[in-house]
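To: structure subgroup
Subject: Chain for Friday's discussion

All,

I'm putting the inputs and outputs inline so they're searchable in the archive.
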Amino acid sequence: MKQYQYEVIVVGAGHAGCEAALAAARMGANTLLITSNIDNVALMPCNPSIGGPGKGHVAREIDALGGEMAKNTDKATIHIRILNTSKGPAMWALRAQIDKRLYTQEMIHTLQNQKNLDLKQEMVTKLIVNNCRVEGVIVKSGLEFSSPTVILTNGTFLNGKIYIGKTTYSAGRAGELASIGLAENLKELGFKIGRLNTCTPPRIDRRTIDSSKMKEQKSADIPLSFSFENKGKIYKDFSVFMTRTNQKTHQIIQDNIHRVPLSNGTIQSAAIRYCPSVEDKIIRFPEKESHQIFLEPEGYNTEEIYLQGFFTSLPADAQDEAIRTIKGLENCKVIRYGYAIEYDMVYPNQLKYSLETKAIRGLFLAGQVNGTSGYEEAAEQGLLAGINAVQLTRGNEPLILDRSEAYIAVEIDDLVTKSVTEPYRLRTGLAEYRLLLRQDNADLRLTPYGYQLGLISEQRYKKFLKKKTLIEKEKERLKEVIIHTTQKVNELLNKLGTTPLSEATTLATLLSRPEVTYNQTASIDPNRPKLPAEVTEQVEIQIKYAGYIKRQEIQVKRFKKLENYKIPKNIDYFNMHGISHEGKERFSEVQPISLGQAKRIPGITPSDIAALMINIEKIKKTKKMG
């Protein structure tokens, strides 16, 4: 049937698809976003929140590069907090509860009003591929859409199957059709496909909860926002409540464990380790008397409450019985039952760092189709895939960040180099340089990239440069301000619980003490300029953690040497001497682009790396002589 020509086609309008399509269109590419249901764009089938450890960092990084997630989160926030404030700034993480329907509506509005972007409701059944190049897609109605680049962001829809106890049916998520044709098409094209699963919890009626028996967690009492473009707000309308399971809850679950598909062998695929089902928690940690449950609101105009921590595929009757043993939920009514979903994914070691597939030119994959979990993990992949699809059509180099620059790069490197054996979840512990990759400095790290790509406006970039200049000027000023040993100074230091001065020092040195904050020293710094909070926050962190930051920067320099040691393309590893057979297989499968990446491949030994270097040097020497 009639063909329609685009520069970029994005399949799927979840969090990955929205970021991919918006990035491509904003870079000037004629873009098509195809989704099976426009009403469910950027849907949140699991928790109604954005952020948390690792995830909040990524949402901020997406914003710094010019993505939409943080801005859309600010439009729909109903409750927000900074987590891990008792720890250092590397661990601080924003987390917002959002009105999930409003989040979807705002994203639809953004997509429909974006220049260069067409949004279409259809089901893609097949890719058009010729001579190992993608040329477009075919949809269920028979229409063909042509493009030199296609980005698949199918989430859990590829051969998706839902389980509630012994009840099972085909679906991409509750209430939506699974994508069967495209899943089979990917297998026909030779991709190595795996199967993973995850769970959702029940949603219960707010009006049937006794929150007086629970611990209340209010929203932050200071203005907060996710996007660097927005001013923070204080939210007072909603609270999160905390309760716990107990021995009665655990006994009911154990009595019904034979009816749970994740436990009785019905589902054989790998489940997520770091977000386990309540059944899995009880089996793995029998010594624990209880597990924490968070009751999270789902929005302004709904009575549904999300049971964070009670992920389950128990039969519906067992879900009712178990939940009603929990304090405050004795009389609760379930509106939607929890379920497990099993789906196909493409092993991500078949991708390049750009997220383009190695086998098919112009075909990109992003999101849960690559074996990841979480909205934020999907969105960042979508953003990078959208950017790099446009870069490919224009003959430009792809945007490839390294592990010292962004959590985004940590995730992509882990996926491409190590692949997955279970759903991948980003955590702060996965980043070697996490003190440099804080959520508060994401704009300082990544805004220049977004600006170069045309995703950051001139106005925003000038504001960013002004902030950067103010930070540096204030740091230098503090190094020059001399604080003398006066009674006023030592009274302040005694009050703050730190040692009084015995000799004059600089204000910067004083600020390096853990007990002393920038704001607390205002009374002994009368000539202090009036600066925005975002500037003073950076000044304080950079001064207070200067020694630690310097050590990590030295580590990064060593890391960069290995990353900059490039491996020539199209090497035949099986003809190399001194590398183990397993090493040859692993190198051939991953096709590392640098010595640093080669070292991170699972199963590779130091002797394999040494032999690889010797062989590469021989190749380089031969080329020079030739």
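Points worth raising on Friday:
The chain has a mean pLDDT of 94.
The domain at 471-549 is CATH 1.10.10.1800 (Arc Repressor Mutant, subunit A).

D.
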